[in-house]
Predict the structure.
Amino acid sequence: MDLHLKETQLDSEVAFDGNFLKVQRDGVRLPDGSLTQREYIKHPGAVAILPLFDDGRVLLERQFRYPLHAVFIEFPAGKIDPGEDPLQCAKRELQEETGYTAREWQFACTIHNAIAYSDEHLDLYVARGLTAGERKLDEGEFLDIFTATVPEMLQWVREGKITDVKTVIGTFWLEKMLAGEWKL
C-alpha cells in the first residue's frame, strides 16, 4: 500500500551497546534508490499503568529524570524484561513502584513515543480495584506517589506541568473513558 514510502535495510551494526540503551546503525536504500544511514535506539518495550481508584482519583508518581534534570509527574511504568508478558510487567511495576495491586486490568492501547529515533513502544493498562501494600523499589530508584483527579491532570497538561508523553496520552484516555466516550 505505502511501498512508495518504504525504506529497505541493506546492512546493520551495533553502534553502541550500553547497560540500558543499544544504538543500531543501518545502511538503508530510500524509495528513490539513494543510500543513507539510520541510527536508532533499540528498546525491549515498556508498560505504563493508569491506576484508577473507585472514587475517580488517579495514582501518580513524581520522579527525577536525569536527562532533563527535572522532576516529572508520571504514571507508574517500567521496562519489559526479556520474555516477560506485558500485563505481568504492568502488575509487577505497579507493586514495585507504588505498593498497590489491582483486582481488574484492562488494556488501553500501544503507543510509540519516539518514532524518529527509537523502536520503543509502551502498552498502557488501566488498573482498578486498587489495594495498598508495600513498595519494592529497585535499587537506585527514588520516587514519590500521590493522587490527583483527571480534571486536575488535564489542567496540569494545559499548564505544561505534565509533559511526559505516556502520562499526557494516558490522561486523555482516562478522560474519554470516564466520560463513556471510549470503551476498553
Remarks:
- The chain has a mean pLDDT of 96.
- The CA atoms of residues 25 and 183 lie 40 Å apart.
- The longest helix spans residues 165-178.
- Residues 3-42 form one domain.
